[in-house]
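Email to the structure team, subject: Thymidine kinase model.

Hi all, the expression group asked for a predicted structure before they design truncation constructs. Nothing fancy, just the tokens so they can compare against earlier work. One-line instruction: predict Thymidine kinase, return tokens.
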Amino acid sequence: MPELVFFSGTMDCGKSTLALQIEHNRSARGLQGLIFTRDDRAGEGKLSSRLGLVTDAVEVEDGMDLYAYIVDHLSQGGRADYVIADEAQFLGPEQIDQLARVVDDLDVDVYAFGITTDFRTKLFPGSQRLVELADRVEVLQVEALCWCGSRATHNARTVGGVMVVEGAQVVVGDVNRSADEIGYEVLCRRHHRRRMTSASAHAAALSPDVLPVSPS
Ligand SMILES: Nc1ncnc2c1ncn2[C@@H]1O[C@H](COP(=O)(O)OP(=O)(O)O)[C@@H](O)[C@H]1O
Ligand SMILES: Cc1cn([C@H]2C[C@H](O)[C@@H](COP(=O)(O)O)O2)c(=O)[nH]c1=O
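Reply from the structure team: attached below.
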């Protein structure tokens, strides 16, 4: 039975790499997929992984009907043996419904990849709809780690190196950015709640609890 599968996790846990591996393995066996993405860091119409791999993809726009796009593609003689949708958190809920319809009405597997929650720990609308509709939600096996060594489960946004909890839900960006840029860091829940990034933990470790007593 064809499935709608949501591969979900934090930033930097290998989602795009897995999407590229699924694409590679299927195309190596003569299958042809349709790849969608939205707002990949590598630019419009690209699906990229931090391991350096990149492939062309269809850039999803607001209001684009993914079901109609695929039906149109098929009716023009194109093939869609499977569908990959990366950065699926940025898709609208109605676009996730369209992907579910692709599975049910066209008998095509759809593999969606995305982060579940934003920097405020709130579900992205697209991810929420995927959790509601997917046949399976798969958590990636490669653990992204918090600076403390625990499994990272949440995404923090940093501005000027400081964790923020207010701002627009969507700001395209990356982990390991310099302190003057808007960036992201993956954290365990404990340290996300305490707003402790690696930089603030490092600063706290350096600041002595007791002021040194100068010799009189
Ligand atoms: N230099 C590197 N050497 C080995 N693995 C790396 C390197 N850089 C990134 N990675 C791996 O790539 C993962 C990020 O992959 P990516 O597909 O870009 O993540 P996501 O799409 O989930 O944000 C990291 O968790 C790490 O395992
Ligand atoms: C937490 C969070 C992330 N984003 C953006 C930042 C990146 O451009 C993508 C995630 O990409 P990845 O391949 O999973 O690393 O999402 C955002 O816009 N808002 C957020 O709250």
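Residues 55 and 195 are 36 Å apart (CA to CA). The mean pLDDT is 94. Ping us if the truncation boundaries need rechecking.
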